[in-house]
Design goal:
This protein is mainly β and 348 residues long. It has a domain of 124 residues: Methylamine Dehydrogenase, Chain H (7 Propeller), CATH 2.130.10. The chain contains one helix and 32 strands. The protein has a six-stranded mixed sheet, with no helix packed on it. Strand 27 and strand 28 form a beta hairpin. The longest helix has 5 residues. The protein starts with 10 loop residues before the first strand and ends in a 6-residue tail after the last helix. About 12% of the residues have low confidence.
Length: 348
């Protein structure tokens, strides 16, 4: 590739006053996009009508992560006060999973709450049409320390939500009732990650190891050393493989039985987040806020891309790998055809 002019985006969303630091495409869709504005205001957009969002959700707590489940009609949102599964069409909370506490003694005083369980967030309809609010439930607690979630995902069959909490535990909760199905105590790091796999399994990158958990088993079914420096990223790839990203700028591919696939993939930069475009290639945002292509079968494996003269604050890739959304330092969100980005080499 040679250095060339940046590609033109297919769609540009209206400028965000506070910028955007989280993006997600709806499963199976390349025209429904989730944005998180400064991690407290979430919006769902139809890219065919980008002038205003389809839905808006205001959060009274810091949103750590959010993604659609199992289709564009629902959201999983986890914050520093718990996790919730939301049904956008019905405007209701499907399930509330509170932040775990050492001691629980609560007095809820929130009004007009559709559903609230324990300490966490309540889902309150706002007067303005199409705008809802996630507000903290006011609670009194006797020496209770809440352990919020570092990472979360929904099972492929939408049967449970998996979470990693800061009390060094991984949880599985029934997605419809919020009932705790399983719990594993595993030492974690600040960047511990998990992804849900088929058949009731969970892959978790905790400290230097890759764990495979099963909701029907009390202990991890598999445990493998992944990166001595620590695991900072975990990606589920098309075709069934899992990619772990290490703190020491490398990547490994694994089967869902935690068997290594090929050799170590050496990366040029530290990866902040990555999304697959096919079984062997990923679009990645590095800690230098630049955009890269990772090709696990090429050498060098990492190539810098040139979407334009702005730093990248967040990325997302559609399930089919055909579209990429970029949130820039100029507070704009742009959506591109993936193929157009792959022809742009920044010449680094």
């Amino acid at each position: 590739m040679t250095e060339s002019e940046p590609p033109s985006p297919l769609v540009t969303l209206p400028k965000f006053r506070k910028g955007v630091d989280l993006l997600a495409f709806a499963p199976g869709s390349d025209d429904v996009l989730l944005t998180a504005d400064a991690r407290r205001s979430l919006a769902v957009w139809d890219l065919h009508r980008p002038d205003e969002p389809l839905h808006e959700v205001e959060s009274g707590a810091k949103v750590i992560g959010a993604k659609f489940w199992p289709d564009e009609g629902g959201l999983l949102v986890w914050s520093d006060q718990g996790a919730q599964v939301l049904d956008l069409a019905a405007e209701e909370v499907v399930t509330h999973i509170p932040a775990h506490t050492e001691r629980q003694k609560h007095k809820n005083v929130a009004a007009r709450v559709l559903k609230s369980i324990g300490t966490g967030l309540s889902f309150v309809p706002m007067a303005a049409g199409g705008i809802w609010a996630l507000l903290p439930v006011l609670a009194s607690s006797a020496s209770a320390q809440a352990h919020h979630y570092a990472s979360a995902d929904v099972a492929p069959d939408a049967s449970f939500v998996a979470t990693i909490a800061h009390n060094h535990r991984v949880y599985a909760h029934d997605i419809h009732t919020g009932e705790k199905l399983a719990e594993w105590k595993i030492a974690m790091s600040e960047r511990s990650q998990l992804v849900c796999l088929p058949n009731g399994r969970i892959a978790a990158g905790m400290n230097s190891k890759l764990f495979i958990l099963d909701v029907n088993e009390r202990k991890p079914v598999l445990k493998k050393s992944a990166h001595l420096s620590g695991v900072r990223g975990l990606v589920r790839l098309p075709g069934g493989h899992i990619a772990t990203i290490g703190e020491n700028q490398n990547m490994r591919l694994w089967t869902q039985e935690a068997e290594k696939v090929g050799g170590l993939v050496k990366l040029r930069k530290q990866v902040e987040e990555a999304f697959p475009i096919d079984a062997t290639r990923l679009i990645a945002r590095a800690t230098n806020r630049r955009l890269y292509l990772i090709d696990t079968e090429a050498k060098p494996a990492m190539t810098i891309l040139n979407p334009g003269g702005f730093k990248i604050h967040a990325i997302a890739v559609s399930d089919d790998g055909r579209r990429v959304a970029l949130a820039g330092s100029d507070k704009l969100v742009r959506i591109y055809e993936t193929a157009s980005l792959l022809t742009q080499d920044a010449g680094e």
